Automatic annotation (TrEMBL):
PROSITE patterns reported for this sequence: GNAT (PS51186)
InterPro entries named in the record: Acyl_CoA_acyltransferase (IPR016181), GNAT_dom (IPR000182)
Lineage of source species: Bacteria, Bacillati, Actinomycetota, Actinomycetes, Micromonosporales
Cleaved signal peptide residues: none
Organism annotation: Micromonospora maritima
Descriptive protein name: GNAT family N-acetyltransferase
């Protein structure tokens, strides 16, 4: 526990009861990031991601308040995660089989709780027990605070990706070995 925080693991069925809290934390964390960060868009994202085989989340609670969470899922052979990858990336980098790569989709913490180690605790709790070889995530190049955090946690940049959905930003692709 970090400063009295409780970390809790959720599968997709378990998380359905706290989805409104997920959306609230997401909107708080992205309040200054522009019009793309809406409840409706994020609810669609959650609805698309949660049915994925192996979806997992870790949440951080301060009393009855959800203050942050991380979630992701293993990338299957038919994943669209890599749609929009900008080459060059190492040969075979985007080959997936459902056991090779864990995709971290979101790591968010309420603004009032940021820079207190909550994100790091969530990150380590989720990835510390994974069986995949590596984890991958996407981060906006203008998100300097996240860039520094990922650097300090051992994530390496490997390329850029621009998803095909309307208004998608360009992301930096980062990866980290996680197999134990």
């Amino acid at each position: 526990m970090l400063n009295g925080l409780r970390l809790r693991h959720y599968s997709a069925p378990q998380a359905r009861g706290v989805l409104t809290h997920f959306v609230d934390v997401y909107l708080d964390a992205h309040a200054d990031d522009g019009p793309r960060y809406t409840a409706e868009r994020y609810e669609r994202q959650l609805a698309a991601h949660m049915p994925r085989l192996g979806w997992a989340s870790v949440t951080a609670w301060a009393g009855d308040e959800l203050i942050g969470y991380i979630y992701g899922f293993p990338l299957g052979a038919e994943t669209h995660w890599w749609d929009g990858i900008q080459w060059p990336v190492p040969e075979g980098f985007v080959d997936e089989d459902g056991r090779r790569t864990f995709g971290v989709s979101e790591l968010v913490v309420r603004r009032s709780w940021q820079r207190r180690g909550v994100a790091w605790a969530l990150h380590d709790e989720l990835l510390g027990n994974r069986g995949e070889e590596r984890a991958v995530l996407l981060v906006r190049p203008d998100n300097i605070a996240a860039q520094h955090a990922y650097d300090s946690w051992g994530w390496q940049p490997v390329g850029r990706l621009c998803p095909s959905w309307e208004g998608a930003p360009l992301f930096e692709v980062r990866t980290k070995p996680i197999a134990t």
